[in-house]
Structures are given as C-alpha cells and as structure tokens.
Amino acid sequence: MTAFPTLHTQRLYLRELVASDAPAVFAIHSDADSMRWFGADPMIDLAQAQALIETFAHWRTQSNPGTRWGIELEGELVGSCGLFKWNRGWNSCALAFELAPGARGKGLMGEALRGMLDWGIAYMHLHRVEALVHPHNNASLRLLERLGFKFEGTLREAGCWGGQRHDLKVLGLLGREWTNK
C-alpha cells in the first residue's frame, strides 16, 4: 500500500495511529467495559498499547493488508476503526472499531465508518465487507444495520477472551448495497 490514507468527515479526522497515541489507546483498551465486546482482554500496561499501534502499522505491509485509522475529534483521539484481512482477489475485507466511552452516543462512529467505507469501496474496490460482532453488543449491531449490513449467521464459539468462548454474529455489506446512509 502507498502513503497512509487520511480521511476527513464533517467532524472527524481519520489518520494513522502513531506512538504518541499510546496513552489514549491504552485508556480505551484498558477499560474492561469497553473491551467486553472487542475480542481481547483489557490491557494492563502502556507497553501493550504501544505494541498494538505497531501491529496496526505492520498490517499495511502484509500480503493481505489492513488499514487502521485513529479517530480524532477536536485534536483528541477518541477511537479507531479499520479495514483488514483484505483479499484482493475476492475484493473483500473485514472491519472493526472501538470508541472511548465519553465519545459514544454522538454519532461519531457512524460518521467515521461512513468515511472509511466510502474510501474502501472507492479505492480498495471492495465488493464485500464483513463484521464479526458479539451477539449482546447491541449498539454495534444497530450501527452496522443502519449502515446497511445484513445479518448472515452465527459463528459458534469463534471468539475467545475473558477466559470464555463467545459466539459471534456475522454481518455483511456488499459494495452494490452501499448508499452511505
């Protein structure tokens, strides 16, 4: 992939995550309530946040690359969203996202995902985007449905975090269905 694709929406700046974002990433990822749906145990030290930022940067060098944007509102990092596991032959990928507790309920993630999906469909030529969501993560399920994602099934015990196995719902969006709702 080429230079990092920065994106702008009405209120947000979607940009590359950098080392100086580690404290904000740690604040989000160390919050047990936030991580109960993320698919990972809460972070316990800043080094884990630094390693996660490095992992996201490394995604762009993989044969099936991914891009993870930091979501910035008024100069503050409030979350991230990304497209990953890009299969160029199938024109498909997965998406994931998280938002700081204080930024929820303001329509920010919907705005960020619209910008990201516009970019992915235009520049990655995506035919399909899928999301795996915990069945009890109602806020994410509603958001994805508002964006046009359709429920396709359940992957039984596909996730493992918090010392437990978790079912995951599969939702998919086809490029031809995308209307930037």
Tell me what you see in this structure:
The chain is α+β, with helices and mostly antiparallel strands. The chain has a domain of 121 residues: Aminopeptidase (3-Layer(aba) Sandwich), CATH 3.40.630. Helix content is 28%, strand content 35%. The chain contains five helices and eight strands, in the order ββαααβββαβαββ. The protein has an eight-stranded mixed beta sheet with strand order 1-2-3-4-5-6-8-7, sandwiched between helices. A hairpin with a 3-residue loop joins strand 1 and strand 2. Helix 1 packs across helix 3. The radius of gyration is 15 Å and the shape is globular. Keywords: Transferase. GO terms for molecular function: protein-N-terminal-alanine acetyltransferase activity.
The value of Rg in angstroms is 15 Å
Coarse shape? globular
Report the biggest beta sheet as strand number plus sense, adding barrel if it closes: 8 strands, mixed
The helix fraction, in percent, is 25-40%
CATH class of the domain at 7-127: Alpha Beta
Intertermini distance? 28 Å
- CATH architecture heading of the domain at 7-127: 3-Layer(aba) Sandwich
The CATH topology of the domain at 7-127 corresponds to Aminopeptidase
Strand content: 25-35%
What value does the average pLDDT take? 93
